[in-house]
Amino acid sequence: MPTQQKTGSPARVLARLARIVESSLAEADLSLPQYRLLAFLAQGDWAASALADKLDVSRPSVTSLVDGLVKRGLVERRPDTGDRRRIDHVLTDAGRAALEAADVRADAAVATVFADLDRDVADNAHAALCRLHEAMDARLRERLQ
Questions:
Q1: Distance between CA atoms of 40 and 123, rounded to whole angstroms?
Q2: Per-residue pLDDT tens digits for 25-63
Q3: Are the C-beta atoms of 138 and 145 separated by less than 8 Å?
Q4: HEC profile for 63-123?
Q5: 98: nearest Cα among 23, 42, 45
Q6: Fewer CB within 10 Å: N-end or C-end of the chain?
Q7: What is the CATH classification number for the domain harbouring 57?
Q8: C-alpha to C-alpha distances, 139 to 2, 57, 59, 64, 128, nearest whole angstrom
């Protein structure tokens, strides 16, 4: 008889949830990395090096991501007013609208998963995801110091 595989692994659960979100983002014509970049830019303007650090990817990867979003009018490159050598990446109004539309799609996709849970379990899962988000932000801040 085959051994039963562990299906409740947190990594596997998060990977499956990420895939659900990724599928919903594809409907909004965004990849998961593009969505993450737009979400970071919604917090403020960033230089490519800071974006690469925050997204934990190489600078050439950020450049490639930004290039595609600039072509679509979702992101602009602007010279920093205090340092002419620095170029900031800024979310455009169209980028903000695309991010909001993607958020709605992704939230709806996650809500369909949560809909099958008892209300208290869904509320606890949501609260746990929010705490996980805060913990990951704290870890990122530590790593970037």
A1: 26
A2: 999 899 999 999 999 899 888 888 888 888 888 888 999
A3: no
A4: HHHHHHHHHCCCEEEEECCCCCCCEEEEECHHHHHHHHHHHHHHHHHHHHHHCCCCHHHHH
A5: 42
A6: N
A7: 1.10.10.10
A8: 39, 16, 21, 26, 16
Tracing tokens 């290039």 back to the chain, one arrives at: 67
How far is Cα 68 from Cα 27, in angstroms, rounded to an integer? 17
- Distance CA(50)–CA(1), nearest Å, equals 52
Domains: count for the chain: 1
Its domain, for residue 80, covers 32-99
For Cα atoms 61, 75, 80, give the angle at the middle one, nearest 5 degrees. 90
Whether residue 90 lies inside any domain: the answer is yes
For the segment 78-97, what is each residue's pLDDT rounded down to a tens digit?
Answer: 987 877 788 889 999 999 99
